[in-house]
Amino acid sequence: GKEGKYKMKINKAKCFAPLSSSPSPSPPSHLPSSSSQSTSNSPSPFRPASCDPAILTFRILGYNLVDQTTHEPFEKVDLFLPDLMQITNAAHVLVPAAAKMDCVVRHLDFRAGVHAASHATLACLPMLTGSDPTDFGCLCDAVVDARNEVTLPRIIIYEKPGCTGGCGGGCASGMTRNQNKSGKTDPLGTSLVSPFSSCRKIARRFGWILEAALERVRKCGCQRDTGCTACVQIHDCKTYNDKLSRTAAEIVLVHALMSLQG
What's the Cα-to-Cα distance from 253 to each of 6, 49, 100, 119, 191, rounded to whole Å? Predict the structure, then answer.
């Protein structure tokens, strides 16, 4: 075998499955508007994103043994462990197929673009919602999971269940769940997202958040397509900021913004 010091790099994947797919309804009239929006009665340029209860699945796919001298992986081990499933709320928008076509034409990694765009979107939450990014997560789809069913590409912001840090926005989700006769929560029961939940607020302002994320990606001064912590890298990425593309992220964000306009 390989001699010398080595460390393990765990490969993880997240799966996202909405329990329903209804569009976000209009916010109650008594709720305050975003500070970034105009105080006039002019119509919003963006439609709300979808906001649904969702099942979030965490899956350990395996690990790589990495040489600490060269930092190169020399062995990959697959694992088949039980999935960890949690019910939460998620605001999400589909990435149009035209974004993938544009990336293919320009020889860019579309998955890396969605991954980077999700990071930038999560990082922009404090500016427009007052939420702490540590209370929320995004889908870091850097690792190809052949065991997962094919899902449509989305930019997803979900509330972290049982969070302990941040401002607590992800804990006060306001979600209700059906219970069975024994009093236990039914994980697949009908769940409703409260109009007062943090996720609902994010869904209503998703267009402005994407707009801020696009500006963040475009104006960063770093010269790497993999980006930096000022544009598309975040410290909380469960896939170690692997598979990121600033150029592809710009394409993804532009098309996602266009899908919310009108």
Answer: 38, 14, 12, 11, 29
Range of the domain at 98: 92-171+188-260
Is 81 inside any structural domain?
no
**pLDDT tens digits for range 63-103:** 889 888 888 888 888 888 898 888 889 999 999 999 999 99
Evaluate whether residue 106 is within a structural domain.
yes
| pTM (predicted TM-score) | 0.73
Name the domain count of the chain. Answer: 1
pLDDT tens-digit map of 134-166 = 789 998 876 665 556 556 789 999 998 765 444
